[in-house]
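Working notes for the structural subgroup meeting. M.R. asked for a predicted model of this chain before we commit to crystallization trials. I am recording the input and output together here so anyone reviewing the notebook later can reproduce the run.

Input as submitted:
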Amino acid sequence: MFAKSLTSLSILAVALSLPYQALGHAIITPAIGITGTPVRADAVRVSSTVPCGNGVDVASAIPGSAAAQAAGNAFNVTITNFNGGVDGSTEIVSTLVDPSGTGASFTGGSATITTNGVEAPATTGSVPIAGTLPDGTVCTGGNDGASCLVSFATAGGFGNCVLISQADSA
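Returned structure, recorded in token form:
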């Protein structure tokens, strides 16, 4: 009887913990398709097959989206995590660059992250991220015809796409 109760209790504990496995979210802003202050529900998981995130329609998300202004190829964005630990990681572990700014062709290499977050932050909050587009990158898309689309992925598996504008940068 005790063993059966212990097994049932173990199963219940695992079942109750499952919903909390997806609560660690992080979002990089200005994120395409997000207006105003991002919330936990705006954070999505990214992968090589969905570099801007599950359920993100890039073509309809770009119009009206703000871009981060580049100075030459250098840019600054902000990452916000909604819980501490690795699942809410603010560390960027990979980037993909689409010079066309459409999300159709992430063939522009990877951005170099020069100021990064941490793998497992102790608390929630926002931190700055700095990076540079690859040398020779010419951005030709976005709302201004001078933006690249950059996909960011965190150590926790979350991420999203951000427009980086080279308009009027020198």
